[in-house]
Amino acid sequence: MTRLAIVGGGISGLTLAYALEQLENEGLRTDIDLYEATSEVGGVIQTAWYDTWPVELGPDSLVDRQRGAVELCRRIGLEKNLVGIRASAKPPLMRTAEGFKPFPHTETRSYTMAGGVSQLPQVLTQFLHRTTIYLRTAISQVVRNEDGWYLNGDRGPYRGLVLALPASALPDLLRDVDIDVSWAKQVVYHPRAVMAAVYDRDSFVDQALLAHTGFIVSPEAELGLTALTWLSSKWAHYPEGAPIICRTFWGPPARDPDQWLDDEVQTLHENALNRLVGPHDPPIWTKLVRYHTALPQIPQGSAWQSSVRFANVRFYLGVLGPYREGPGVSDCVRVAWEEAYRYAQWANSINVGLS
């Protein structure tokens, strides 16, 4: 039997806990404590609601790939809630300084959830039977002694530790541990602001562009935003008469959204829509969220170092996050499964945790 601490209750940490519990069928026996600094799990996966319509404030797309988010949904009984891209939806466009152009990328095998993507972390927690979740519990210090890992001085000892956190948090958290995490300092995060807005169905004079799933915006267009998504046009669970639901994304390389107040972002959102789509009525509902550790930029040669896990063979250390493979939900889910198998391999190598 091993004790494992997971720090971070986003989709990476939750999937790791679930995967390890599933490996009980292969003889792995692990008691897990999961620590989340905020009041709820899910991380950047956030769903708001306007009336009966879900409005995704974080990721909205689950790509179907091996051991990815779609497979995870099927495992926990959420397959019936998966919906695909609307058959009549036109592909996204690229907005450049010269105007709109076809975007050289087609979304395939992508799904969302009719009841909101936040269903995934919420339901996933119901399948955790050997995991204790501690909400509103920020971890500020990690130490390791002859007994194992200790968190915040008195939580421990743990034989294993996995940090499902942004790379930028690792150097300070591991400051008292003789581990080389210099690679983490090279991972750069671009802040993002996401403005979600709902409009009446007849709000836009010209609705031709609303038939597309959205736009990618080139910095040369000098609009300040990086992308726009028409959620109500993209996904099949929104009926034809549903309100128009869109999201705009703000951040580098165009501009730093942290320089703007919330009201300024909403004004920029409306101005951008006027330029992109044309005259329209004001929104009937808005919601703004900010992500300060969005879209990690990984310089070549500075990616996660697998040797970190085996810095001390007696005590396991792993890291999880979108800097490992990619920023998508399915990327994070797949890597969490890989980490679970690595942990099981380590436990087997030192003959602990296996019944």
UniProtKB/TrEMBL annotation:
Query: Which InterPro entries does the record associate with it?
Result: Amino_oxidase (IPR002937), FAD/NAD-bd_sf (IPR036188), Zeta_carotene_desat/Oxidored (IPR050464)
Q: Where does the Amine oxidase domain start and stop, copy by copy?
A: 108-296
Q: Which domain of life is it from?
A: Bacteria
> Which GO molecular-function terms appear in the entry?
oxidoreductase activity
An example Pfam family from this entry, by short name, is Amino_oxidase
Please name the PANTHER family in this protein's record. PROTOPORPHYRINOGEN OXIDASE
Name of the molecule in the record: Amine oxidase domain-containing protein
Give the originating organism: Sulfobacillus acidophilus
